[in-house]
Amino acid sequence: MRWLLLIGVMLLIELYAFQAFKTATKNKWVLIAYVLASFAVLGYFFYTIFTFDRSLGQTTKTLYAFGLFLTFLIPKLVLTIALFGEDIFRLGESVFKKFIFEDATERTRFLVARRQFLSRLALGVAALPFLAIIYGMVKGKYDFRIIQHTLYFDDLPDAFDGFVIKQISDLHSGSFDNPDKIAYGVQMIDSIDADMMVFTGDIVNTKAEEMHPWISLFNTLKKPEFGKYAVLGNHDYGEYVSWPSEQHKENNFKAIKALYGQIGHALLLNEHVWLKKDNQKIALVGVENWGNNFKKAGDLNRASEGLSVEDFKILLSHDPSHWEYEVKDHPKNFHLTLSGHTHGMQFGIEIPGIIKWSPVQYVYKQWAGIYEHHQKYINVNRGFGFHAYSGRVGIWPEITMITLKRKKKESDLAV
């Protein structure tokens, strides 16, 4: 039934899109080229779906098949919405127009002219997402940005005033397809002078071997004074493919955990470490993946065992839904949580101070950037890599730089 519904929707979209082209131009070669291109893309997409190998998982072929499908689908969807809306409007005004135009020929000429105008306008509008999706696949997915935040805390130990953290997340190394661009991104990470580096999960799409070509490159990242730390993401458990046996799956999981150490990161598995400076300290807590709709292996109570509410704490947790459902109101008071996971859906619109929108916001309350709740913060990194769709539109790959600052008190000012 689901397939029949999908086919029905696709046929409706194709019908309206074809009608838009047919109305806008009478050139038969343009129409033939459009039909052939549409059939080729749909054929390739459905071939990829029906031949998908669950033992391999996502491959470059599936990435580009989905990207091409979106390139054609979204503009056609724009056309369908515009023309379907016009059909509904036309139905409502048909009686009214009948009385305005006594001559049926004149009425028909008016409707045809309006349809032609609307079709051309809709094609012009549809060209925008078409070009944006193409740009996202060619350029956008490697348009790395350094995002800087300064956060103020009343109880940050004085020794850590000005402490700088750089964060990356969601490499999805199995999707990488341009070594030069990845090397450029790694150089950008290394250009940040930080006290500590953290990596908040999803080093691969599924299999440890995906990261093997990139280990030497990521090993060039300098180790900051206070080290490099990481936690696991939902893709690091190898749960999105079929395995010959549970032992194969377990071996892959062990290999993925080892990857973090092979690129110089200490992996925190429901545990914490102390960062000490000038006889003062803060706690870095790391949990395994905890997702509202994904694997719940994270154990916050175990990870923070022995910590008090007064201790200043930074939590690494891959999925921001963990903060929403368990962390933000936890009695032990986690000052700052660093997450990733959402990628900002790799699609949206962000103009600082004006608009910040992505479809993913209807699934995650915290999906990109800094959020605050009762003086507790979370940063959701937009991700370094990409997954499913081989591109990014409006939501660019991110490297985060966070500076911790102590709020000045009246007693400090008096001195």
Give an overview of the whole structure.
The protein has 415 residues and is of the alpha/beta class. The chain folds into two domains: 2-138, no CATH class; 146-407, 4-Layer Sandwich (Purple Acid Phosphatase, chain A, domain 2). 41% of the residues lie in helices and 17% in strands. It has ten helices and 14 strands. It has helices at residues 2-24, 28-50, 60-100, 104-138, 179-190, 215-218, 246-262, 300-303, 321-327, 410-414; strands spanning 145-153, 163-168, 196-199, 228-230, 266-267, 271-277, 280-286, 313-316, 336-339, 349-351, 355-357, 369-373, 376-380, 398-406. The strands form three sheets. Strands 1-14-2-3-4-5 form a six-stranded mixed sheet, with helices on one face. Strand 2, helix 5 (179-190) and strand 3 form a beta-alpha-beta unit. Helix 1 (2-24) crosses helix 3, helix 1 packs across helix 4 (104-138) and helix 3 runs antiparallel to helix 4 (104-138).
- Let me know the average pLDDT: 91
Number of helices: 10
CATH superfamily of the largest domain: Metallo-dependent phosphatases
Estimate what percentage of residues fall within beta strands. 15-25%
Reported CATH architecture of the largest domain: 4-Layer Sandwich
Low-confidence stretches: none
Order of helices and strands: HHHHEEHEHEHEEEHEHEEEEEEH
Distance between the termini: 74 Å
Gross morphology is: elongated
Instruction: Please give the number of β-strands.
Output: 14
Order of strands side by side in the largest beta sheet? Answer: 1-14-2-3-4-5
Query: Main sheet, how many strands, which sense, barrel?
Result: 6 strands, mixed
CATH class of the largest domain: Alpha Beta
Work out the helicity level. 40-55%
What's the CATH topology label of the largest domain? Purple Acid Phosphatase, chain A, domain 2
The total tally of domains equals 2
* C-alpha-based Rg, rounded: 26 Å
Q: Structural class of the secondary structure composition?
A: alpha/beta
